[in-house]
Amino acid sequence: MSAAAGHGASVRIENCGKTFTDGTRALEPATLDIARGETLVLLGPSGCGKTTMLRIIAGLELPDPGGLVLFDDKDMTSVPIERRNVGMVFQSYALFPNMSVADNIGYGLKIRGMANEERTKRVAELVALTNISGLENRRIDQLSGGQRQRVALARAVAIRPGILLLDEPLTALDAALRERLRGELNRLLRALGITTIYVTHDQAEAMELGDRIVVMQKGTIAQIGNPRDIYFAPKNRFVAEFIGAANIIESPIEHGHLVLPGGRQPIGGDASFGAAVAMIRPETIRIVEAASAPLSGTIDSVSFIGDRQRMVVSGAAGKPLTVDAPNTVKAEVGDRVGLLIAPDAVRLLPPEK
Ligand code: ATP
C-alpha cells in the first residue's frame, strides 16, 4: 500500500471550453487547479458538462483552441491518454468479462511489460487493498456489481497513475452498497494519495469524498469550495437547492431583520436595509414554544423519516417552511409553534436575475 503513496500529480486546466462539432456548447472556458493528492469532485445535474471536463483531463477530448491541460506544470493538452499516466473508472466497469479478477487487475502491468513475479506481488497488494481477497481466480461474470467495481478500481490504480479519474463509478449499485463503497473508496483514496477527479450527480457522494467540490451548472462553474462552504455558504440559489434541502424566501430587510408574516427574524452580516433572497437549511430551525421565538407559524404536516422528522410550517415566512427536527420534538399538525433560527443560519443570496 505504502509503495503506491505520494504518486499524485497536480492538474491545471486553463481556459478549457468545449464546443462539439454539431455546435453543442458543453463547457464554457474554465480554469481550475487541482493540488497533488487532492480529491476534487465535479458535481452537477445531467448535461452540465462534468464528463466533458473529465474527458478533457483524460485526453479523450481536446479542449477548444486556447485551452490548456497541465500535469505538474507540463503541457499535456495534445498528449494521448495512454501517455498521460491516468487511471480511469467508469460507471460501466469495462472489465474483460471472461478473464479472471487477477488477470484483469494485472492487465495494464502486463502490457507495460512488468515481470510475472513483480506483477503477482502488485496484484496481491491491490486485492488486499480493495477487499476482494479470495476472488482472485473468479471470472468477472461470476462477480456481483460491488465486487466488479472493486476490481475496476484495483485495475485503475495498479499502474500507479498520478491521476485517478472516476466517472460515476458507484451509480450502477444499489443504495446500501453505494454507501458502503463510498466509505471504502474514501479510505482507499487517502491511503493511495493519488490526485483524484470524481464525477457525480450525487451530493452525498460529493460531500463525503471531496476535499473540494466544483458545482457545475449548464457548462459553467457555479461554485468551488470545500463541502462545508458549499453547503452552508452557497453562492446562489442553484447551488443552495442542488445541495441538500433549502428554504428560499424573499423578504424585505429592516434593521438587520427579515420582515416576515410570522415575525422578525434577525440575520447575521451587515445587511440592515433593503430586500433579500434568503436561504435557511431545514435542520437549522428549532421548534420551540410559540411565545419564546421572534418568528412563529402553524404546523401543516409532520412526516417521520427515520433519524429525524420533517415538518412543514406555514404562516411564518410567506411560503411554507421545511423544518427537520429531532424525533424527540413533540409537535402535531395544527400546533402553533415558535421557530428559533440563529442569525448566522440565514444566508443571503444574490437577487434573482
Ligand atoms: P451526465 O451526468 O448526464 O453524464 P454531464 O454533466 O457529464 O452529464 P456531459 O456528458 O459533459 O454532461 O455533456 C454536456 C453536454 O454536451 C450535453 O448537452 C451533451 O448532450 C453534450 N455532448 C456530450 N458529448 C457530445 C458529443 N460528442 N457531441 C455533441 N454533444 C455532446
UniProtKB/TrEMBL annotation:
<dbReference type="GO" id="GO:0043190">
    <property type="term" value="C:ATP-binding cassette (ABC) transporter complex"/>
</dbReference>
<keyword id="KW-0067">ATP-binding</keyword>
<dbReference type="InterPro" id="IPR050093">
    <property type="entry name" value="ABC_SmlMolc_Importer"/>
</dbReference>
<dbReference type="InterPro" id="IPR008995">
    <property type="entry name" value="Mo/tungstate-bd_C_term_dom"/>
</dbReference>
<dbReference type="InterPro" id="IPR012340">
    <property type="entry name" value="NA-bd_OB-fold"/>
</dbReference>
<dbReference type="Pfam" id="PF08402">
    <property type="entry name" value="TOBE_2"/>
</dbReference>
<comment type="function">
    <text>Involved in beta-(1--&gt;2)glucan export. Transmembrane domains (TMD) form a pore in the inner membrane and the ATP-binding domain (NBD) is responsible for energy generation.</text>
</comment>
<keyword id="KW-0547">Nucleotide-binding</keyword>
<dbReference type="InterPro" id="IPR013611">
    <property type="entry name" value="Transp-assoc_OB_typ2"/>
</dbReference>
<dbReference type="InterPro" id="IPR027417">
    <property type="entry name" value="P-loop_NTPase"/>
</dbReference>
<dbReference type="GO" id="GO:0005524">
    <property type="term" value="F:ATP binding"/>
</dbReference>
<dbReference type="InterPro" id="IPR003439">
    <property type="entry name" value="ABC_transporter-like_ATP-bd"/>
</dbReference>
<dbReference type="GO" id="GO:0016887">
    <property type="term" value="F:ATP hydrolysis activity"/>
</dbReference>
<feature type="domain" description="ABC transporter">
    <location>
        <begin position="11"/>
        <end position="243"/>
    </location>
</feature>
<dbReference type="InterPro" id="IPR017871">
    <property type="entry name" value="ABC_transporter-like_CS"/>
</dbReference>
<comment type="similarity">
    <text>Belongs to the ABC transporter superfamily.</text>
</comment>
<dbReference type="Pfam" id="PF00005">
    <property type="entry name" value="ABC_tran"/>
</dbReference>
<dbReference type="GO" id="GO:0140359">
    <property type="term" value="F:ABC-type transporter activity"/>
</dbReference>
<dbReference type="InterPro" id="IPR003593">
    <property type="entry name" value="AAA+_ATPase"/>
</dbReference>
<keyword id="KW-0813">Transport</keyword>
<protein>
    <submittedName>
        <fullName>Putative spermidine/putrescine transport system ATP-binding protein</fullName>
    </submittedName>
</protein>
